[in-house]
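Input set for joint prediction.
Command: fold jointly, output tokens.
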Amino acid sequence: MSDRSSPIRTRESTAFAIAPAPGLPPAATAFDMPTSASQHLISVEDVSIWYRSASQRPILKEVTLSAAAGEFICLVGPSGCGKSTLLKAMAGFTPIGSGSIRVNGVKVFGPGSDRGMVFQEFALFPWLTVEENVLFGDKASSGSKKDRKERATHYLDLVGLTKFRNYHPSQLSGGMRQRVALARAWANQPTVLLMDEPFGALDARTRQELQDTLLRIFTEERTLCFFVTHDTSEAVYLADRILVMHTGGEAREELHVGIPRPRDRHSEAVVERVKTVDRRAWEAKQ
Amino acid sequence: MNSRTLSQNSAARVLTENALPVLTVFLVLGIWYFAAKFMNNPQVLPGPDLTAAAGWELLKDGRLAADVIASLTRVIEGWMLALVIAIPLGGAMGRVDAVHKVFGTLIELVRPIPPIAMVPIAILWFGIGWVSQLFIVCYGAFFPMVIGVFDAFRNVDKVYEQAAQSLGCKGISLFRRVVVMAALPSVISSMRIGLGLAFVSLVAAELIAASTGLGALIANSRVTFQTDHMLVGMITIGIVGFALAWIMRKVESYFLRWR
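tokens >
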């Protein structure tokens, strides 16, 4: 494999741990989080999804991965590689063909509030105010009136929108709407937060602001995050681990970013890793 | 400089939005006036002046108000009856495929039959009177509403439901808090369209099967050669229909002020 001679690997061998060949379960590398089955918040085992029947080409092919609390994992790959499908399967929106997905050891059947979701199209409820959106979730809406008020203030504060609590989504810009969606997802205290190209519809500058907001909340709350993107620089900026997926729905390999946060988008280390991930993603297209 | 362009723009907007529509109405009135003058036969075409005089007369002795109230009552009754059936049925069709399978084709088959074509059979079944009128009005309002409500519920964006499910919302609560709310804009606009069609069907019903109401005013004045009364009836229908649509738009923007 060409990555053996990758400059990153030779210069800074702790930076990228390359998972074994595709098809094999990812063996624990030196840089994996300490992993035992009980510590995995989410584990995806041999999951395959077919379009209609098993005779057709699968959308997802025997994907196995697991993640522990406090991790930030990005799924990247060419369009049609199944990264969104994998996320939707974890969310419980897409039924899986074979294999299993477990959250806290419990098998996933359908959607649930243990798996929060942030969508590319924001999916705010336009008939509710910003605050009502944030407090929509079953856990977010629990407690006394005072608790709810404080909760809304806390999460709106995290995304910098306290002043807009009584606005309706239609009165906000795209970036602000997605901030509300982040606050809404986090206010419900999910075990794992699933984000499907959440910043894909935003302009470059807003996207960077949102990435920083996201990392700020992540640093504070340490919720396990899965983040689908086709933007490899976004993946390197955000993730602890990057899962590169392959056309045909195979999880090709896993890359550990290993750069301490806060990261500098323009630093040599970040730029080098973006190149590496790009190369892997491009290889994955073949 | 900038603000001047802005104010000029808004002045132009005020002109096009308010003055132009009024101007067109006056233009048509003018054409009508001179056409009537030229024709010089009030039996065929009374001018706007004669029509206005006749309207004033009908207004003064209370006949016009009685007709308007009779018509409006029928419209509201028929429309509400149609609503009560169309909203649950359309909603169920939009959410449950089996219900759509059962009723969809039937509705598409009956829908092209215009309300006016139902008048003879309504008279045959229900006689001339309240039941026939109610039936025709309800029939006219029902189909656009059931189709509109069906579309509204079927086209609720999946992403709202998914977002709600990921926030622990399900079952009746999901339906009430998300599906209904997401469908509401289209449901209300199909109610507005239904009301318009209820009104159109009402006139069809009254032309034949009623002794009061605006449709009856038109039909009766044809028999008595009171063309001015006929025109008063027609214009009143226009105005009342316009007012109903205006009210519905206000109701719509009140309920959907979050848009």
